[in-house]
Amino acid sequence: MSDEQKDIKPEESQPVAAAPDAELATVEVAKEDVAEPRKEQPRPIPKLFPRRKEAHYQGVAHIFSSYNDTIITITDLTGSETIARQSGGMVVKSQRDESSPYAAMQAAFRAARLAKDKGIKEIHVLVRAPGGTGAKTPGPGAQSAVRALSRSGLRILRIEEVTPEPHDGCRRKGGRRGRRV
Prior knowledge:
single chain; alpha/beta; Nucleotidyltransferase, domain 5; 5-stranded mixed beta sheet; 5 strands
């Protein structure tokens, strides 16, 4: 064997050059003679209720603030699914501090942290007082709760007061002459 033949290994086979016209001619003939069967592609199933992308990261913060306590509930946009729930009584030890602005602020920070962990980024704020035959003005913790929600990193879209007002329904307590102080 010569030196050139030893250098060529059996694994390294070199391609044999063929005439370029011969290969193209066979391919063209094969395409003309053989008819390809049509492949039916499945139809896409239409979505009946397409979801909006904004709905996933928006929520509603319900702030109920009376003179005894402040309750903060963060729900989805429909209000049916509760995402986070905190109150002033869950934050402070003494009962007299439940309605304080400090307790409302801490409760709002906790509720915001829970909501952010679950993917909420924007909220609508609904502030409510007892209303009806009770007090028509929100308690001392309402304003500090709204401030704490805005400081926590949640984007506030709107703030609305939803205190129920009676249209001459039930009689208010206190008797005919009213509450005597």
